[in-house]
Amino acid sequence: MTSFQHLSIVIPCFNEEEGLDALFERLENTLAQLNEFHYEIICVDDGSRDNTLAILCQHAARNRNIVVLELSRNFGKEAALTAGLDIALGDAIVPLDADLQHPPELIIEMVRQWKNGYDAVLARRTSREMDYPLQRYITQKFYRLHNRISECAIPRDVGDFRLMDRRVVEALKQLPERRRFMKGLFAWIGFKQTIVDFVVEPRKTGKSTFNPRRLWLLALEGITSFSTVPLAIWAYAGFTVAILSLVYGCWIVLKTLVLGVDIPGYASLLTAVLFLGGVQLMGIGVLGEYIGRIYSESKQRSIYIVRQRYGKQDTHD
Ligand code: UDP
Ligand code: MG
């Protein structure tokens, strides 16, 4: 047994060729200051279509603490992160974005908090200036909705950048779901947590892959993974509509008895039919969303597929 502790950094990379040199420089400078640790940097190439893999391999050849995991295609950030966490050997593990939006220097402060006895140290963005006002507004509303209807609240402005103790990662690996909404999973497992603040930097190179469509899908994923409220709503909606229909029905019968038969009513009839049709379709849509999840979970496909691993095999030597 050595007295050294091991630190793993996990970096999902998708088309990041331009920023990697700067990333390694800053990251390695930071890690050099943590000289009481052995470290490994696990870079997961998530099916990049540019030179990312080749550049990562050059760095792995230069520094034997760098490991490169090549996935067989683009599986998405959440899957790439899972792949990295699965092979990380550290006593503490830090996921990091490749685009330098997460300042590596913050790791020093995270490690300090970890040594104070916290199992997870979350990095919180203190400014979201980078986002468009509309995006900021929608994000805020999403978290408020999510936290109101889900079993556990996601802390605001906290992303994947965090330090996790080994036992937190082991707990995460036990969770069987195939479709992984990482922020939700992180919140669900709990543990003793603390927060450190950082200012998010603009993306240095390349461009963000998170367009409105992907954000919408991610939001759906978050809600349907951690809440069944959207399913339950329809029972109440149905009940309310049924009661209203009953009252309306009684009124029509009474009116017919008192005033005699009255033919006109086409407009109200059509409105009611269309409205109910719409409500039913929405209800079926929500059911479909959940059934889709059941379907993809039940296939039990692997979350990612590794094509090849480059770099040394084991840090514990
Ligand atoms: N990423 C990935 N696979 C993807 C999309 C993104 O591994 O399919 C990585 C990307 O290389 C970066 C991180 O996930 O390291 C965050 O991506 P991005 O900067 O595009 O997201 P944003 O910061 O806008 O949320
Ligand atoms: Mg980014």
Structure description:
- With about 325 residues, the protein is α/β, with parallel strands linked by helices.
- It folds into two domains: about 5-225 and about 300-310, Alpha-Beta Complex (Spore Coat Polysaccharide Biosynthesis Protein SpsA, Chain A), CATH 3.90.550; about 230-300.
- The chain is about 50% helix and about 15% strand.
- It is built from ten helices and eight strands.
- The chain has helices spanning about 20-35, 50-60, 75-85, 105-115, 135-150, 165-175, 180-190, 210-225, 230-260, 265-300; strands spanning about 5-15, 35-45, 65-70, 90-95, 120-125, 160-165, 195-200, 305-310.
- The protein has an eight-stranded mixed sheet with strand order 7-5-6-4-1-2-3-8, with helices on both faces.
- α9 packs antiparallel against α10.
- The longest helix has about 35 residues, at about 265-300.
Ordered list of secondary-structure elements with their pairings:
Blueprint lengths: L4 E9 L6 H14 L3 E9 L6 H11 L3 E6 L5 H11 L4 E4 L10 H10 L4 E6 L7 H17 L8 E8 H9 L7 H8 L3 E6 L13 H15 L2 H31 L6 H33 L7 E5 L7
Parallel strand pairs: 1-2, 1-4, 2-3, 5-7
Antiparallel strand pairs: 3-8, 4-6, 5-6
Helix pairs in contact: 9-10
The structure holds uridine-5'-diphosphate and magnesium ion.
